[in-house]
## 1
Amino acid sequence: MSRLNKALERIRTERENTQRSRALTSAMTSEFPQSNSEARPAFFDNARSVKFDDDVLRTKRIITNDMDPSVRTSYKMLRTRLLQRMNANGWRQIAVTSATQGDGKTVTAINLAISLAGDVNHEVCLVDLDLRRSSIADYLGVKIDQGVSDCLARGIAIEDVLLKTPYERLTLLPNLRAETHSSELLNSPEMRSLASQLAIGKHRIVVYDMPPILAADDMLAFESMVDTTLFVVAEGKTSRTEVVKACELLDGTNLIGTVLNRSDEKTASYY
């Protein structure tokens, strides 16, 4: 049995316990005041501010004011459709994953977070949980010396890693170190505590950039801590076989939708 299949069996046997823990976490967070300003944990206010490199953003296809309007519109359409479903179900934590590397999940996660933060009714936290190949800081042109894995494995405080971005209502929790035992970290009590704290506040949305689901068992280990999952495929790259295998592993999760990346269509090309 392959490592991935073994991991899948392990995750499935633990699902009952993790779902019970997830229900307890949901009940705990629902007790906080509905006012987002009242519920804001102190570390959001204590985070340091950073600037993004516009040249890097353009090179990496991240949303900027001078980006192709059709692309910005596509992400706004994606945002609106996701918010409709998330608000209807009370979902506030979303994982973004793909079948394999290079399908565009990180660009999608970043641009989705930026677009969500453009909605005045929500605050957004973007978290880099691709602990083996972290890249969000590079995509944004941000220099960091520690990241989320340092919070999980080395006891670094969240406020020492969390960043206020130039986008109003958007904070960033990047990562730096590559972690060999990433799935163990993502299924740890420290990760559950961190995820619970990040989600405090009725109007906060947490976007997690996850590793490709066929690359490791990280997404399976973390799946019980999020409300829903967005699956990214790349036109002309992601094979049908890869999509089928990924969907089998995602079976039983709250799959909110699929993003078609690299499409030649100019309308509705991302959803």
Note: Residues 16-38, 267-271 have pLDDT under 50 and may be disordered.
## 2
Amino acid sequence: MLRLFTATGNRVLADAEPLPADAVWIDLVNPTEAEEALVEASLGIDVPTADDMAEIETSSRLYIEAGVTVMTVTLATGIMAEHAETCAVSFVVGPRHLVTVRYQEVKSFERFAAQATRNPDLCSGPLGALMALIDTIVDRLADGIEHIGREVDTISRATFRRADPSAAGRQQRRSNLALQALLTRLGAAQDSLSKARESAVSLTRALSFLQFAAPKDAGLAAQIKTQIRDLASLTDQASFIGANLTFLLDATLGLISIEQTAVQKIFSVASLVFLPPTLVAGVYGMNFAHMPELGWTLGYPMALAIMLLVAILPYAFFRWRGWL
């Protein structure tokens, strides 16, 4: 799909329709070969292909060719929807046009398109449209990191705080499924955070490159510095959340270890409780001819009472010592 944005409005270009001369922002979403060829022929620029955008070396992502600045960045998507992914997006900045190329839907682009529809002045020039678009992307990225932070706070409360205040003073057990769910949520949060951090770093590199690539008379220096500072603060926040995630992961693994130890302790106590009665039963189960208790009327109840007593005494001792 090929969308056009001008200082007077926007529309989707139909097949075989020529490119308008007043187009400022040209948004290529999953472009076909015909659409790429139309833009290249009309503007005299090379549009990066999907293979070009997959390159990871800086020289293939940030360069100037024939007076056209090309920047390919990695953007995080789906953070708010709990299925984070990354996609490559290329910005091709010419003297009169801004061309964006992407092969995935990116919410920040849709948000900026809506803003440009309400306020066409945002697309009065390619560099102005680029900075307004990057500002929207950074705002959306900040929203995503804030969402991850709230999720981490929720996980922290689920990990350490008792759901039932009346349970104070008693150990509140967690099931294996609950602990597995915590680990799953931690993994999802860490995945989203790593993609958000990668996006912030990629945008910072692109803006640092744009500082030197943009014309000095364009008046973008202050805007670029502001965006770089914003991205630096987002990176710091992501690092802080990452440290919390690491702590929560260690704490959750510790809780799993405690639960496993508690289960082993139950079996150990059960073995200890039933061992003395087994000894008593074994003694009275021996077939000796001369055992005085065998002839007593109360011999059987006495044996049962002894077995019950020797079972209770170890349990009571462990409770008194605070081992249970």
Note: The two ends are 68 Å apart (CA to CA).
## 3
Amino acid sequence: MSISAWLELLASGLITGGIYALVALGLNLQYGLMRILNIAHGEFLMLGAYLTWMAQSTLGISPLLMVPVSFLMLMALGLVIHRLCFARLTATSPNLDIFEARGLMVAFGLMFLVQNFASWMWGGELRGYDYFAEPVKFGQAQFAGNKLLVFGLALVFCGALIVLLRMTLLGKGVRALMQSPVGAQLVGIDTKRLHPLMFGIGLGLSGVAGCLLSMAYTIAPSMGEPYTVTALIVITLGGFGSMSGALAGGLLLGVIEALGMHFTNPSLKALLSYVVFIAVLLLRPKGLFSK
């Protein structure tokens, strides 16, 4: 393989990994802070993709303008869902184990509800649009412009969340709750405000990921579930509750999949991911990047 071919292969993996990281960050935020294993997370990514497709195809709105709109709309939806579902579970569950089990069942219900709503609303066929698909050359290598844009924006949002959690008072409160929920509440951190806000931000990030995906790939009502599974693998790689670990894990998994599919068979993509997942669980159960 030539150097340009290697660059294109690695770039393909990093672009995919950037989306993986963005989806995983939102899910990791919800589970690390509230112990909500939201397996419907990918379905809200799908909603973000369809909102962007509708805005572009019917109203001619640029997908770039839909990035903040998708974030705000899905964040607002997340606040509503937390208030209607998970806040009630928190109030009625006698302990954390029961809350996690009930939360998982609610997330299952949300997954089927959102997926069937999308199928009823938009049908089951593939949808898509052309946006900034012209190739961009770097020396001998060339890349699709929309995929480079997707990668750049995914890194921007990932970096913004990590900076928010590390550099702001809000972020310190979130990290304190992740480390010791009881201790954080004893020093006055208000979980009733932080929990719905962070759940909303998590869904907002999934909406952004869907918006970015629609710029470069076709979309369908069933597209969300594989991204939820991949996000769980990424979180396992990076360590539960670790945001920088989720970013590194997403990029690493994307590169591993790209290399594996090139040197073996593209149909083995899922197998490669699960092999990595099982290996990390057995050898480094706290994640590759946990401290």
Note: The chain has eleven helices and two strands.
